[in-house]
Amino acid sequence: MKEKRFGIDIDGTVTCPTSLIPFINEDFSLNITLDDIKKYDLSEALDIPAERFSDWFNKKEPAIYSSSPLAEGAKEVLLKWKKQFQLFFISARRSHLMDITEQWFEKQDILYDRIELIGSHDKIKAAKQYGVDIFFEDKHDNAVSIHEELRIPVLLFNTPYNQDPVPEGVIRVNNWTQAEQWVDQWVHTEKTLPLNRS
């Protein structure tokens, strides 16, 4: 049986979903918490004009990504998985942010097979290109579309901004410990099933 390939989003999945909040609070004179963000589109969630928010985000991206804290438990689980699986980090970040992204992974001591910054939220092409067997995501519509297009399980990390209903193949997890437990069971089940994938 081939070594499984994991497709993993970075922001809000490997990094803590609160990463942007201190920057938003400081620069927009707000006092919000993650619970206040009910939509993925932050300009809409915070009622900030889209162009203003986009300009701000483009300027702040390097600082945000350099200082993003890891999601709790992510490092321990990813280090275990790297011994057993191939890890492909597929992110909507734009390609000019590759140096900052690689430096962050090095600083956090997280190993990987590939980092792909696609500059778009449409991750289906990259997931298909690398033949990933499972995906990890925090954006609701990404999780649903990846599952429906590729017919693979997608683990959706629960946040206040991704609470729309999900189909059966999208599995909600609250943290990396739950993700690891689900994956352990999935891998065990796959090993005991007749080989149905090349």
TrEMBL record:
<dbReference type="Pfam" id="PF06941">
    <property type="entry name" value="NT5C"/>
</dbReference>
<dbReference type="InterPro" id="IPR009206">
    <property type="entry name" value="Nucleotidase_putative"/>
</dbReference>
<dbReference type="InterPro" id="IPR010708">
    <property type="entry name" value="5'(3')-deoxyribonucleotidase"/>
</dbReference>
<dbReference type="InterPro" id="IPR052419">
    <property type="entry name" value="5_3-deoxyribonucleotidase-like"/>
</dbReference>
<dbReference type="InterPro" id="IPR023214">
    <property type="entry name" value="HAD_sf"/>
</dbReference>
<comment type="similarity">
    <text>Belongs to the 5'(3')-deoxyribonucleotidase family.</text>
</comment>
<dbReference type="InterPro" id="IPR036412">
    <property type="entry name" value="HAD-like_sf"/>
</dbReference>
<keyword id="KW-0378">Hydrolase</keyword>
<protein>
    <recommendedName>
        <fullName>Nucleotidase</fullName>
        <ecNumber>3.1.3.-</ecNumber>
    </recommendedName>
</protein>
